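Regression report. Comparing outputs from two consecutive submissions.

Submission 1:
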Amino acid sequence: MAIWLVMFGAFLAGGLFFIAADIFKLPALATQKAMISAGRQAKVKTRTIEALMMGWAMKLSRLIRMDEYKRYRMASTLMAAGLDMTPELFTAYALVKSGGVALGMIPCLVILPLVAPVLLILAILTYFKTIQEADEKLKAKREGMEQELPRFVSTITQELKVSRDVLGIIDNYRRNAGTMFAAELDILAADMRSGSYEAALTRFESRINSAMLSDIVRGLIGVLRGDDGAIYFEMLSHDMRQLELQRLKAKAMKVPPKIRVFSFILLMCFLFSYLAIIIFEIVNSLGKLF
């Protein structure tokens, strides 16, 4: 009898879901996966639960309202981080994801009430972690690009001695740039070919929002306006080399604490080896005496 009740409940829930999906015009799961995968820059396989949450987030995003400044700022961050979402959809996705965790409180209140506050805290942490995902991706992308900027400035310094073609300089460097920086230079080059050079450089600067990149863009705009630029980029190259040395020193300072643990383990291994030899010799000596 219990099996029939379980089967009846499962079929009833499935039927109600399909009726609700038809009423609210929900797309099929395969369609949602294809839409999410097509909008991504990285070719990562879309998970089923992610596709379901994105479908619910699209419905919820119509109810979210933002002021213009916050929306513009979040839209710029999402575009620079490579997330093809509107600010409303991204916020709704964070709410749906945290809401899915919070739904676990309902059975916990019946079965194990003490776990419910833990799930509530976990839902809040999930929301803040998801809403900060774009900033974290942009930060990692910016740090990866800033490591390449000293070499980019050195190239500009050498190129300006023979040419003042800013687009040509960018195209030449783009062929040997890293993956992330090359992708941004592709966008910059296409933007420069389709419109104003200065406007394209300004948009490039605002996308990445890096102080080091702002100095480079300022110098390139000066070259476009007729400035010599050679001395400026020579000084900028010197300053960036100093910043690169400071960054490498800071990175090297983090290594000794990690090595110290393994050095201590190695030291203990040597001590145990000597102790084992000493104890073995003492035992052999006592054996000969007795």
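Submission 2:
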Amino acid sequence: MHKFTALKDGVNEPLLAEVRKHVAEMLKDFFDPEDLTVVDDITAFSFGSATVQIQVVPWHTEDVLVRVFSYLAENADPTSGELGEKLLRLNATAPMGAFSLVFDRTIMFSCALPGSHLDPNELLGAMQTVAAYADQYDDLLQEMFS
């Protein structure tokens, strides 16, 4: 029987730099330079009415995460009983990724992928999913919860 090992807290700086470079190269294959905006360590592109962002962040000593996300609506009322229920129902239909309410009352849709062995298909799939859901739901959620 194989033993399940626990993740060890820590930041693998060399891997973080390597994956950031790898993701940047993949994005060059997917987009023309003028389609991407890079600010600090976040790369963004527009899709319909949504903005999708990609960021490589620390996870544990052996891997990093590639986060693909889009902010959909601001100032959502977390005390609204229907907010949580609607987001959970939407999550049940998403093939990957999830809707969430972040600390500043913003609704977002995001996917997170392990970065150390990330291939172009995985990144493209996450970007396509986030872009499609963000473009489909941003206006609707802003209307419903803002």
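Expected: both submissions complete independently.
Actual: both completed, but the second showed a warning that disappeared on reload.
Relevant detail on submission 2: The chain has a mean pLDDT of 92.
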